[in-house]
TrEMBL record:
MF terms in GO: hydrolase activity
Protein name, per record: Dienelactone hydrolase domain-containing protein
Keywords tagged on the record: Hydrolase
Organism of origin: Caenorhabditis elegans
Keyword Hydrolase appears in the UniProt entry: yes
Pfam entry (one): DLH
The Dienelactone hydrolase domain, residue ranges: 28-242
Length: 243
């Protein structure tokens, strides 16, 4: 299925402007289609996230690669990326919530998006974003994390997660996400009475979905094709089920 690509500008509740990459199937014919947010890893939107959003559009969804940094902000190296991401992780219920809710509102406003059928997925930092949207009960139908941070929102009540099917793909050899965090996530999801699936991929390390992961120069970050392919197939299967 052929798709169209365009830049989508949107603002958060503080008036900050963002610019995401929007992919739409050409054959919408004004039909309402499910929408999917693609939250990027710590580098922001790269060709990897664009390709994933395009692939989702080819499956018949309207996909938005969401901008976590703001329009015109393009960090030059890892240090600059982490300098932007770190405050959002520290202030999740304030700074990060503002960013991810803005993206959710943006895709809801896209013409031909069925506002009752919106999902989100994310990689690494983006996985945290997708899971936090589920935690906030904004009306998300599915939240999928690939090698994402799993800690609950600090000082937030563990309310039930309503409507959202949660799917987590974790590298069994991921040294960046310790066992205590994995165990804590299971406790949180059970406490929240969530509909969740947790997959631990054998031999997979952090960043296992990204073909360029080996070049990041980060210890414990490595591409694993088998885990990448299996986790992506599972994500598509969940969207097909939910939508």
């Amino acid at each position: 299925m052929s798709v169209t690509h365009s830049q989508l500008q949107y603002t958060d509740s503080n008036g900050k402007v963002y610019e995401g990459d929007l992919y739409v199937p050409r054959t919408t014919r004004m039909r309402k289609l499910p929408g999917v947010l693609v939250f990027p890893a710590f580098r922001g939107i790269t060709e990897f996230e664009k390709e994933k959003a395009k692939a989702l559009a080819q499956e018949g969804y309207i996909a938005l690669a969401a901008d976590p940094f703001g329009k015109g902000i393009h960090p030059k190296d890892k240090a600059e990326c982490f300098a932007i991401v770190r405050p959002m992780i520290i202030e999740r219920s304030k700074l990060l919530k503002c960013v991810i809710v803005a993206a959710f509102d943006a895709i809801k406003a896209v013409q031909c998006v069925d506002v009752n059928k919106i999902g989100a997925l994310g990689f690494c930092f983006g996985g945290l974003c997708a899971l936090d949207l589920a935690r906030y009960n904004v009306g998300l139908k599915a939240a999928i994390s690939f090698h994402g941070t799993l800690t609950p929102i600090p000082d937030a009540p563990l309310d039930k997660i309503i409507e959202t099917a949660v799917q987590v793909h974790h590298g069994d050899s991921d040294a960046h996400i310790p066992k205590e965090q994995v165990d804590g996530f299971h406790v949180e999801m059970r406490t929240r009475n969530a509909d969740f699936v947790f997959s631990s991929h054998a031999h997979a390390e952090h960043g296992f979905t990204e073909p360029d992961a080996d070049s990041f120069g980060l210890p414990g970050v490595k591409y694993n094709k088998k885990a990448a392919d299996r986790s992506w197939a599972s994500a598509l299967a969940l969207f097909k089920e939910i939508f």
